[in-house]
Amino acid sequence: MKPKILMARAVFPEVIASLQQHFEVESNQDDRIFSAAELTQKLSDKDGVIATASERISAELLQACPRLKAVCNQAVGYNNIDVAAATKAGVMVTNTPDVLNETTADFGWALLMATARRVTESEHWLRAGHWKQWRYDSFLGADVHGATLGIIGMGRIGQAIARRSLGFDMQVLYHNRSRLAPELEARANNARYAGKEELLAAADHVILVLPYSKESHHTIGAAELALMKPGATLVNLARGGIVDDLALIAALRDKRIAAAGLDVFENEPALHPDFLELSNVVLTPHIASASEPTRRAMADCAAANLLAALLPTAERKWPPN
Ligand code: DGY
Predict the structure, then answer these.
(1) What is the model's pLDDT at position 316?
(2) Which of 91, 158, 228, 262 suits a disulfide with 232, CB 3.0-4.6 Å?
């Protein structure tokens, strides 16, 4: 008998077809988000699940699903999973690191450029028919080249962002749980380790790429925003809870910082409505890793992880022929 799995969200159809060669697959190609009770019920007879950041795998769910052996997240972040409870229950947890580093770093730069140079704000203004003449002071933004870039969270995505800054002649400061080895700092455009406060006070542009946890909750709140330069910009690519949205809204409204670029939000997809009223924020719907090849690579990585977790070694070939 094939192991039973749940593909919790819609995915490329070829991935489902390939998974069906190994597993009895319950798929969700309608892409409906399951309630906690529904997810528990669906997983109660499953051996494994491919989940995303939208599915909360809690201790209660794990307790109610004793057959479950593997939770394979189709994301690098795994703050949706109670890993301690999974470990205690003997459930393997996997994520999709590395395959999305470069694509996510590209998008960090897209948000940084759009935010500093007011790309979306000026485009909305133009589309609304306001452009009547060229002006010397239209949409003056901040320079990116030659500026100081502050990266909080210097994992592989942070380092990929830093490498790109070489072409913009930037100085890079980073803050991280631990310092990088000197050779990694050198590859990351000679990034210099700094305390969080020092980084926030010195950087012209700050990018957040740290994992979300209880400890990183509200890494950026009112006190941190107050340390930033008045003309500075902030980009969040990581997880919503890392920034205190209310504090950021207040700082953007009072122009205490110049602008923000946000791909993630507290309580997403329910966005705080005040963000929509602000012109100095670029808002995107959690798409930093959303290039076609990278989303395919993430799906393949999650599927390969599921095979590794549930099948004997000889049967683990992904993709199957
Ligand atoms: C990730 O991989 O963690 C992205 O944020 C998608 O959830």
Answers:
(1) 79
(2) 228
Q: ipTM of this model?
A: 0.93
The C-alpha atoms of residue 192 and residue 173 are separated, in whole angstroms, by: 5
Query: Who lines ligand 1 at CB under 6 A?
Result: 53, 75-77, 100, 289
Domain layout of the chain by residue ranges: 4-99+292-315, 101-283
Looking at domain 101-283, its CATH architecture is 3-Layer(aba) Sandwich (3.40)
Instruction: Give the residues of the chain that fall short of pLDDT 50.
Output: none
* Distances, alpha carbon 150 to alpha carbons 82, 189, 229, 278, in Å: 30, 12, 12, 24
At 57 the pLDDT is 98
Fold match between 4-99+292-315 and 101-283? yes
Ligand 1 center to residue 77 CA distance, Å?
A: 5
Report residue 100 as tokens: 């999305």
Closest residue by Cα to atom 6, ligand 1, is 75
Q: 10-19, pLDDT tens digit by residue?
A: 999 999 999 9
Whole-angstrom Cα distance, residue 280 to residue 277? Answer: 9
pLDDT of the residue at 321: 66
Q: Which atom of ligand 1 is nearest to the CA of 78?
A: 3
Instruction: Find the Cα–Cα–Cα–Cα dihedral 310, 311, 312, 317, rounded to 10°.
Output: -130
Residue 317 has what pLDDT? Answer: 82
Residue 313 is predicted with a pLDDT of 84
Cα diameter, the chain = 72
Q: Extract the tokens encoding 67.
A: 């057959």
> What is the edge-to-edge ordering of all strands in the sheet holding 205-208?
192-193, 171-175, 148-152, 205-208, 233-236, 259-262, 281-283
